Amino acid sequence: MKKSHIDGDDELVYADVDKYAKMCRFNNCMHQNEPGCAVITAIVNGELTEDDLKQYFKILRANEFNNNKTEYNHKWKNFAVNLSKSSKKSNSNNKSEFELLEQETAQLQEESNMNV
């Protein structure tokens, strides 16, 4: 039976699980109870551990969060540039754009709290 990776080996865990994930019968396999899931088969056969799969999901969530955060930062930067360009003009779009960015800020903070 395979031992679980230690916490510092995220890259190894990701590579191990991803290798099996690419062999799944369905491209959108969630590695839960789908037929033909190579990841679940690897766990049953002792080639992966349940902890490996949990760590894999944790890595995927962190990557998704970081991608969303980067996109969010880009939107704020664009908003600030547009705001400074139009500061001499009255622009009602700035308010609605600002409100949307505030909503995204709240959503990212909630996601951040869920990832901790």
Query: How many whole angstroms does the radius of gyration measure?
Result: 21 Å
Element pattern in H and E: HHHH
Strand segment tally: 0
* Separation, N- and C-terminal Cα atoms: 30 Å
Low-confidence stretches: 1-6
- Give the overall shape: elongated
Mean pLDDT: 76
The tally of helices reads 4
SS content category:
mainly alpha
Largest sheet report: none
β-strand amount? under 5%
Residue share in helix: 55-70%
Description:
Helix content is 68%, strand content 0%. The chain is built from four helices and no strands. Helix 1 (10-21) crosses helix 3 (50-85). The longest helix is centred in the middle third of the chain and has 36 residues, at 50-85.
Short description:
With 116 residues, the chain is an all-alpha fold. Helices cover 68% and strands 0% of the residues.
Task: Note the main attributes of this structure.
4 helices; mainly alpha; 68% helix; 0% strand; disordered N terminus; single chain; 116 residues; elongated
List the helices and strands and how they pair.
Elements: H1 10-21, H2 38-44, H3 50-85, H4 92-115
Helix pairs in contact: 1-3, 3-4
